[in-house]
Amino acid sequence: MKIGNIEFDRYPVFLAPMEDVTDLAFRLICKEFGADLVYTEFVSADALVRYVDRTMKKLTILPEERPVAIQIYGKDTQTMVEAAKIAAHSHPDIIDINFGCPVKKIASKGAGAGLLRDIPRMLEITEAVVKAVGVPVTVKTRLGWDNDSKIITTLARQLQDCGIAALTIHGRTRAQMYTGEADWTLIGDVKNDPRISIPIIGNGDVVTAEGAEEKFRHYGVDAVMIGRGSIGNPWIFAEIKNHLTEANISVPDFDGKKEILKRHILGSIDLLADERKGIVHCRRHIAATPLFKGIPNFKQTRIAMLRAETTEELFALIDGVDGE
Length: 324
Prior knowledge:
By secondary structure, the protein is an alpha/beta fold. It is about 40% helix and about 15% strand. The chain has an eight-stranded parallel barrel, surrounded by seven helices. Strands 1-2 form a two-stranded antiparallel sheet. The N and C termini lie far apart (about 40 Å).
């Protein structure tokens, strides 16, 4: 499978773009465990064209995380074009357009999944960005706005006609947000449409190696994208790659995973140049990690971890957990 000139081995697994999750520290760890493509956090086009410092920092890319995609979002065509040009100066391997974020503060303003209610504008933005930059442009979107407007089969053809190099489909509508189960049926329909020639990447509810295998085999997608299933669980990529291929990536034992979690926290602190901010930034991973699930009487320890404000305190709590 290829996106532009980027060639992937069989059964590629991608790290989904997630705000406050897929920062540089986390991307590097996911890459270490076999993620074939990683994405930045969401990058606001409006903030990018104003050169907002926090947003500009999201464009930082290191050689060891390639191939990497920068994802941008916005509602104004010219602003999106200018933002794409700015992003291109960081030399990403791919520029991805976010037409799928369901969060109210983004969608209600006509960006992200909000553009599922304005398809002409979505197509205008896509075509303009494709023409403006010299790197492959991809799109991530959803099945439609709600259950009565699942338009993805038609929309996929329209986006392909705009010149995109690949399409990622999250198997939910905007109205679903992240509730219920992802419906991969329409993702499969798009992939099996004889008029579709670009790679189709499926996204939604893949949390195990067996689940990833089922998506590849049943729906025929070219790649699977892992979102929430990777939070606090970067070794999921190794588990999937080992299951589906002969990758043979080392998956750490319980104590090794604790060390990975600590290394991620230190990477976040280094990235933000602030101990407390780095720890707070990682609390989502600490809360979501499957590492501590099933441990008896763990509730109070988890609460203490989520309240810790120094590495000394937090690491003592992590080190004190026995996985046996």
